[in-house]
Specification:
Two copies of one chain form a homodimer. Chain A is an alpha+beta fold. Chain A is built from five helices and five strands; from the N terminus they run ααααββββαβ. The first copy, chain A, has two domains: about 80 residues, Orthogonal Bundle (Arc Repressor Mutant, subunit A); about 45 residues, 2-Layer Sandwich (Dna Ligase, domain 1), CATH 3.30.1490.190. Chain A has a three-stranded mixed β-sheet. The longest helix of chain A has 13 residues. Chain A binds a DNA duplex through helix 2 and helix 4.
Chain lengths: ~140, ~140
DNA sequence: GTATCTGCAAAATCTTTGCACGATA
DNA sequence: TATCGTGCAAAGATTTTGCAGATAC
């Protein structure tokens, strides 16, 4: 399932697929960053200049409610989106550059389940962002 | 320092203290939840009906930039604030009720440092929210 | 063919800001 | 008293929505 495309998952869920939705789906599927809606709109406009910002908003909301996309918030007041079926990962934000690094750590995942259980809850999701600064100088020119 | 009031910390930082800022400081200091700005404005208005929403916004931003308050985002599009000097903790959100439970787990804190270090970073902060559902029925009527 | 989607523009929501007046140190 | 803060209303930024025409199934 991790190798199914967003479009395939939309069809599997019975969503009506329009040209605009396919474009948004492909744009997000091709992204390896965390675009906000304005950025998705820009990338979608490159494919179809007639697409509207409202449609992009409606589409990401639809996909999110269908569990196809995940909405992220990095604290700058704009929602960002990524493919929910990509392997789960968390984010480390380099506060000196704004760069976002993805990581996964099974120990943290397990620990979170344990903490929720201790509080009488069953974990269904989480948001984890580490804010950090580089230890060594980045390998910049 | 954890037992100093917000007002004391403002004075220590040389912030000019007005009646309005004192009111906002006391309202947040007295809160044991995570009020958004509109809610802070309501609570402050109960003390001084002439205070303006703009002043509350300016004050929480000022306090946040001074490191006195922490800005939280729970994904509903509104910023929330809490006293940054309260003992550090993370949040578990009961998605069935929206209730927010605070917790602290040293293992998770240590693990986060380790992960950042492994990626070549020094951790300076983090955001962690667990989304969960109750295991047993809540003790409701 | 009918229900749903799109584009546009207006509106809703949250937050910031210019300006004249008022308060702080 | 000089500087900085406040209140108000207007403006900004992001997101949502009403409506008429267009499209998917």
């Amino acid at each position: 399932m991790a190798d199914s495309t967003i479009i395939q998952r939309c069809e599997a869920k019975g969503l009506r697929m329009t040209d605009q939705r396919r474009i948004v789906a492909r744009v997000i599927g091709a992204a390896d960053d965390h675009p906000d809606v304005e950025e998705l709109y820009a990338r979608a406009s490159a494919v179809d200049p007639k697409i509207s910002l409202a449609t992009v908003y409606r589409t990401v909301k639809l996909f999110e409610e269908a569990g196809i996309l995940e909405r992220l918030e990095f604290g700058d007041g704009r929602a960002r989106y990524e493919d929910a079926e990509r392997d789960h990962h968390d984010h480390l934000i380099d506060v000196t550059t704004g760069q976002v690094i993805e990581f996964i750590d099974q120990e943290i995942e397990d620990l979170q389940e344990k903490i929720a259980a201790r509080l009488g809850y069953k974990l269904i999701g989480h948001r984890l962002e580490l804010l950090a600064v580089p230890v060594a100088k980045p390998s910049k020119t």
